[in-house]
């Protein structure tokens, strides 16, 4: 099978000379030569069919049940109140908050100081390396299409052979190019054709793509985006990234390159590989150009660059078999560090006096949340010495806390947790680093105690429809879950609640193990681990209620902390089902290998000193750091997003 045909891609999008975008004034002559060469190359590909004998359908998930709204429509008054963990209770609490602001300013919302803003345009682009032949078939994974043609994991799509008989084809509700769309159901005087005429080519679009790239775009919007989140109204991959790609050429090429890489998993098409490499090289070249443009560092102008970096680093994460050796810093981590720097430079907080008054658009909020998600979750498996001087300022990821107090508690569809909770993960790592340098400190453990208090009461909220919903925690959540015959919840709302709770409990376990240095068999750790395992067991591992919103890092955490057979049974079950049933590319397979190797090492070699609660925290056995050192030595830096 040389290629795929994506049936029904109605976007007739063509790259043409007449649609060339205006370029920056710098390096104008060089740009003209590069652009002319690029357009000539595109013309050689326009007539090539790279999809082959397959028709592709969207996998319908519209029949997923939802819980009825229990709150009066439009009643959002409860969202205007601060979180219980942040609401002042007494004068002593106010004094405690003042203590935190003095000793731990990174724990408090703040706006950046314009006097400290530094913009460094002399930065390297990590994605330039191997950009000419980035995708190859050598050592590349491939996936077999299931018998029914349905892939319902991290991407959601259905394949059918165009040469199969109508009797062999499975019924579907959404076929691209479906000829019955737009049929009149009543007679209209003067209209002889029953069909509504199609929209003009390129209607509503600023960019123009050729037919093959148009199919890739449809694969992205209908297959890739469908597997990103269950919270459809906050699917920024679809609503924000696609819109940015329509306006920004660099983002568009990054999007098409990463999408073509997914298609290559099912079709060994040399023409598709050439097209994928062409888009990747173009995206890398345009990103290098944008990084040297000071306008991209201005407030409100960072969306294009950060979206392009995000797409390219995610491509590096899922194409894990092509990464550099383990002793090298991976591209995805260099990319996340670069994107964090871009977000720091373009922080809208520079324009405000108070963090609660900062207003950011949806693209800024979504992109910053996802970039921080990638960067922050690399820290729990990074040696503390490597993190010093990296994001350890008094305002690390400060833009996560900007906006109204209830806004930072909203669960983001792109990650499954709120910005506040994500920021707490970074705080735990930073406090652990400070304690390692000052083990005799009495002040640092007080800051960790405040985080412990916040996590115990942290209540997130989400919006799957027009009516917002407040997440439950602990026993209230267990009592509210309605389980099916397989012991799984069956609604989007329940999965979202369990996901948010899994992240809250994971933060509690991380705090107890890395900062307070409590061993895996400590009652506090075991209690929280049992609650986390219950969250994971209640959630589906495949099907329409499974997406990349699934709490991957918390599942990995159960693999590090769980030591009893009943603990590891849940972890192993999750990995086996996800890897065996996903039929698509992800970062899960290599992490499962890491978990299995870790179990063997912890059972045979890890030695932990007996825990003594009377010993000062800084002088307890740092067993987590032993584990991290082992992971970093044998596996390199891990991506857990």
TrEMBL record:
Pfam family, one: Fungal_trans_2
Keywords carried by this UniProt record: DNA-binding, Nucleus, Transcription, Transcription regulation, Zinc
GO cellular component entries: nucleus
Predominant place of localization: nucleus
Subcellular location: Nucleus
GO molecular function: DNA binding
Keyword Transcription: yes
Compositionally biased tracts (Polar residues): 80-91
Disordered, as annotated region: 65-91
Signal peptide as annotated in the record: none
The protein, known as: Fungal-specific transcription factor domain-containing protein
Biological source species: Lasiosphaeria hispida
Species lineage: Eukaryota, Fungi, Dikarya, Ascomycota, Pezizomycotina
């Amino acid at each position: 099978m040389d290629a795929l045909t994506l049936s029904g891609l109605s976007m007739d999008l063509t790259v043409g000379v007449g649609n060339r975008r205006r370029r920056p004034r710098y390096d104008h002559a060089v740009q003209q030569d590069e652009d002319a060469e690029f357009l000539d190359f595109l013309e050689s590909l326009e007539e090539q069919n790279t999809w082959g004998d397959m028709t592709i359908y969207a996998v319908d998930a519209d029949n997923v049940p939802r819980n009825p709204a229990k709150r009066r429509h439009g009643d959002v008054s409860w969202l205007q109140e601060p979180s219980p963990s942040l609401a002042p209770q007494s004068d002593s609490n106010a004094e405690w908050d003042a203590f935190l602001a003095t000793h731990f300013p990174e724990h408090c919302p703040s706006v950046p100081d314009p006097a400290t803003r530094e913009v460094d345009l002399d930065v390297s682009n990590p994605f330039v390396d191997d950009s000419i032949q980035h995708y190859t078939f050598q050592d590349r994974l491939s996936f077999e299409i299931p018998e029914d043609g349905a892939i319902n994991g991290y991407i959601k799509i259905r394949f059918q052979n165009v040469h199969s008989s109508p009797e062999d084809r499975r019924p579907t509700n959404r076929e691209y190019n479906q000829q019955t769309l737009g049929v009149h159901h009543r007679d209209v005087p003067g209209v002889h054709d029953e069909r509504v005429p199609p929209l003009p080519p390129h209607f509503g679009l600023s960019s123009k793509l050729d037919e093959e790239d148009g199919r890739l775009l449809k694969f992205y919007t209908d297959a890739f985006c469908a597997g990103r989140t269950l919270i459809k109204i906050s699917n920024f991959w679809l609503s924000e990234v696609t819109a940015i790609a329509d306006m920004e050429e660099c983002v568009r090429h990054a999007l098409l390159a990463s999408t073509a890489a997914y298609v290559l998993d099912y079709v060994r098409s040399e023409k598709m590989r050439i097209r994928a490499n062409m888009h990747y090289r173009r995206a890398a070249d345009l990103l290098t150009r944008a990084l040297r443009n000071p306008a991209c560092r201005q407030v409100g102008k960072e969306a294009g660059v950060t979206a392009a970096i995000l797409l390219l680093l995610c491509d590096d994460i899922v194409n894990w078999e092509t990464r550099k050796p383990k002793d090298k810093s991976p591209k995805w981590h260099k990319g996340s560090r670069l994107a964090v720097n871009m977000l720091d430079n373009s922080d809208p907080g520079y324009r405000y006096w108070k963090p609660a008054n900062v207003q950011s658009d949806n693209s800024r909020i979504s992109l910053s949340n996802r970039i921080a998600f990638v960067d922050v979750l690399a820290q729990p498996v990074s040696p503390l010495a490597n993190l010093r001087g990296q994001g350890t300022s008094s305002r690390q990821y400060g833009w996560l806390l900007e906006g109204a107090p209830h806004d930072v508690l909203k669960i983001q569809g792109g990650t499954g947790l709120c910005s506040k909770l994500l920021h707490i993960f970074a705080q735990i790592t930073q406090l652990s680093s400070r304690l390692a340098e000052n083990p005799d400190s009495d002040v640092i453990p007080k800051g960790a105690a405040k985080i412990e208090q916040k996590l115990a009461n942290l209540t997130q909220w989400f919006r799957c429809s027009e009516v917002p919903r407040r997440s439950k925690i602990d026993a209230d959540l267990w009592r509210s879950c309605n389980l099916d015959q397989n012991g799984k919840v069956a609604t989007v709302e329940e999965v979202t609640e369990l996901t948010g709770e899994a992240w809250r409990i994971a933060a509690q376990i991380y705090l107890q193990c890395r900062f307070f240095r409590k061993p895996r068999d400590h009652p506090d750790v075991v209690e929280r681990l049992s609650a986390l395992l219950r969250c994971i067991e209640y959630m589906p591992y495949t099907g329409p209620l499974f997406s990349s919103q699934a709490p991957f890092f918390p599942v990995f955490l159960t693999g590090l902390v769980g030591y009893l057979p009943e603990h590891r049974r849940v972890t192993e079950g999750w990995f086996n089902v996800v890897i065996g049933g996903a039929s698509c590319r992800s970062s899960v397979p290599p992490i499962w290998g890491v978990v299995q190797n870790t179990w063997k090492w912890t059972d045979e070699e890890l030695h932990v000193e007996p825990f003594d609660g009377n010993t000062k925290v800084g002088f307890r056995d740092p067993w987590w750091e032993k584990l991290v050192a082992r992971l970093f030595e044998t596996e390199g830096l891990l991506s857990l997003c």
